[in-house]
Amino acid sequence: MSSKNITDVFFDLDHTLWDFDKNSGLAFKEIFKINSINLSLDDFLLHYVPINLKYWKLYREEKIEKEALRFARLNDAFQAIGFQAEARLVYKLSEDYITHLTTFNHLFENTFEILDYLSVNYNLHIITNGFEEVQHKKLTKSKINQYFKTVTNSEMVGVKKPNPKIFNFALELANVNVNQSIMIGDSYEADILGAKNIGMDVIFFDLNNMTLDIDIKQIDNLIQLKKYL
User: Fold this and answer.
1) Is residue 197 located within the same domain as residue 184?
2) Kind and range of the H or E element at 172?
3) pLDDT by residue (tens digit) across 158-199?
4) What phi and psi, each to the nearest 5 degrees, are found at residue 93?
């Protein structure tokens, strides 16, 4: 599919524009200090990051609710490193984490440059599986909300990427045809396969050097979008 037809560009938010891992690590550092948790942050994150990804996969697949995800990812990480934490503390930390997460708003390199560049010729949009109240804060506090004509999150639609319903909802909200649209995201399963399944063009933001057998456009820095758009 030629990008000459493209009028609307849809971005994922976390791990694509908003540097989730960096901001999340800073949030944990802050809440551990507030709650006097004496732990090695590096050891904790080593276990927490893959556990969090596992639970987000379950959340995407409708196998776990939001509150259960928030508790279990923390509880499992503490158990993995042998740190004894009562349920009451885990619940408090999960609340503190959400409160403090959006006080850190590091974006990936060249985010502003590429959004400035693209916004001249394209309508820009967000499609995210993240929680509505948190995603709104991320967009406003990182000062990128003004670039986006629409923001579709999974809580509005009742399903998550890669479910085709969320992509179709986003297209309808943006009032654009699938043939004029392209999806950019870091999750091969949620963003790339999800969008491709409804016939949408895609660009894979690949920070982990995944080797793909199929002919999918890939970038590892946002500025490389200039090659395609």
Assistant:
1) yes
2) helix 164-174
3) 999 999 999 999 999 999 999 999 999 999 999 999 999 999
4) -65, -35
Query: In sequence order, what are the residues at sequence separation of 6 or more whose Cβ sits closer than 8 angstroms to the Cβ of residue 56?
Result: 69, 129
CATH code, 42 = 1.10.150.240
Phi, psi of 30 (to 5 degrees): -65, -45
Largest CA distance in the chain: 57
Instruction: Show which of 76, 101, 126 is a domain's final residue.
Output: 101
Output the pTM of the full model: 0.94
Considering its fold, how many domains does the chain have in total?
A: 2
Same domain flag for 85 and 31: yes
Of 71, 101, 131, the position where a domain reaches its end is: 101
- The 10 Å Cβ neighbour count of residue 160 is 21
Same domain assignment for residues 129 and 219: yes
Two tokens at 27? 């949030």
- Beta-carbon contacts of 100 under 8 Å, excluding residues fewer than 6 positions away, are 27, 30, 31
Sheet holding 123-128: strands in order across? 148-153, 123-128, 8-11, 181-185, 201-205, 217-219
